[in-house]
Specification:
The structure holds two protein chains of two kinds. In chain A, about 35% of the residues lie in helices and about 25% in strands. Chain A is of the alpha+beta class. Chain A has an eight-stranded mixed beta sheet with strand order 1-10-9-4-5-6-2-3, sandwiched between helices. Chain A has a two-stranded antiparallel sheet with strand order 7-8. In chain A, about 40% of the residues are buried. Chain B is globular and about 45 Å long. Chain B starts with a helix and ends in a 17-residue tail after the last strand. Residues about 5-30 and about 155-165 of chain B have low confidence and may be disordered. The chains are: A alpha+beta, B mainly beta. Strand 8 (about 160) of chain A pairs antiparallel with strand 5 of chain B.
């Protein structure tokens, strides 16, 4: 990936001056037309424990793909998720709170520091990683994308990755995506509505004759 | 002649004092209308060797100015980067320069333009202050101090009660 591809600076400056603040507000979240069941996968969490599709069962999850050498977007999103969770805990029973997953897509650099990295943002957040192929397969199943760049002279490289946060239901199905920048109160309200609607739909299904 | 020199000194002193009183320090001298403010660094996990730096850069002058580099004693290397999300994919690119047109303000902020601060030379805690120097194409250097703050959206932690959500 083109970490050091130089853009025409004037174009960038003009685009930023003209557009950054005037950009229309994107929807907080987008529900998928139909839930997408995740395939089986074999990863490990930041405690070194096995993490598979079955680990997702019975609980809502918010999954962010990212990498620990990402200085801007990933810490911003994780810090915002921390605030989303704080807001959500005011509206939701503790046993129904989603768990935040950080899918580390740069295992070579992420794995040694994953626990410290993830727990910095919240002790209940869980880092998940594995072989690059296994990580890429899960990202693809989430309809996302990872591209790892070529190392520069210092050995640093850039990783392009999907920016959205996947909302995964207790049946391990992707049901919605949250778009950055994840304004905490609005995102919490969105999630709270989404989870309540899903719960009511499930109850209605159960009581069908 | 002594009397004349005294008069000149007095006038000079008056002008300097007037300038100091009416203008903010950053507008005096070669920075010529360039103002940097609200510089901050989100607190990062201690295991992370790359931090981000954000600030507001205002060009009150009459000519366009280009930021071409930055340095800080707290980091081994500093680059100008831009993050962008295209088709849902977040990427980051190094920029050789960022031009601030005359009369315009550019925000370095999460998810867009930022300084990439590499290899912190010490552990930084929330509240720490870090010296930062911005370098412009014409040789101007603009010094500021960035404060380490919790990451994430601004002000969220300070809103109590008056935000009812969506």
């Amino acid at each position: 990936m083109a970490r050091f591809r130089r853009l025409p600076a004037a174009v960038v400056a003009l685009a930023l001056v003209g557009g950054l603040r005037a950009a229309p507000a994107e929807a907080i979240g987008v529900e998928l037309d139909a839930p997408v069941a995740l395939p089986a996968f074999e990863l490990e969490d930041h405690h070194g424990r096995e993490f598979t599709r079955e680990s997702l069962a019975g609980r809502w999850h918010l999954l962010l793909a990212g990498f620990t050498h990402c200085p801007d977007v990933c810490p911003f999103t994780l810090a915002n998720l921390q605030r989303v969770m704080a807001e959500l805990s005011l509206r939701t029973m503790p046993d129904k709170l989603p768990r935040v997953l950080f899918l580390a897509v740069d295992p070579k650099r992420d794995r040694p520091v994953l626990r410290d990295y993830v727990e910095h943002f919240h002790p209940d957040f869980l880092g998940v990683t594995g072989d690059e192929a296994a990580v890429d397969a899960l990202v693809a199943a989430l309809d996302g994308l990872v591209r790892r760049g070529e190392p520069d002279a210092q050995g640093d490289y850039e990783v392009a990755h999907s920016a959205a946060v996947s909302v995964i239901d207790p049946q391990a199905r992707v049901v919605a995506r949250l778009n950055p920048p994840l304004a905490p109160p609005e995102t919490a309200a969105y999630l709270s509505r989404l989870m309540r609607a899903a719960e009511q739909a499930a109850k209605a299904e159960e009581t069908k004759p | 002649m002594t009397r004349f020199r005294t008069w000149v000194l007095a006038v000079t002193a008056t002008v300097v004092l007037a300038a100091a009183g009416s203008l903010r320090a950053e507008e005096v001298g070669p920075t010529d209308g360039l103002v940097v403010r609200e510089a901050w660094i989100p607190k990062a996990p201690s295991v992370v060797p790359m931090h981000a730096g954000y600030f507001v850069l205002e060009n009150r002058g009459a000519r366009d100015r280009s930021l071409v580099g930055a340095a800080s004693p707290a980091y081994a290397r500093v680059e100008i980067h831009v993050s962008r999300v295209e088709d849902g994919v977040a990427t980051m690119q190094a920029l050789a320069k960022v031009t601030v047109p005359a009369g315009k303000t550019i925000r370095f902020a999460p998810g867009g333009l930022h300084l990439m601060l590499m290899k912190p030379q010490r552990d930084l805690a929330v509240g720490d202050r870090v010296a930062l120097t911005l370098r412009f194409e014409d040789g101007t250097e603009l010094a500021t101090t960035a404060t380490v703050r919790p990451a994430g959206h601004r002000h969220e932690g300070h809103r109590h009660g008056h935000d009812q959500g969506a």
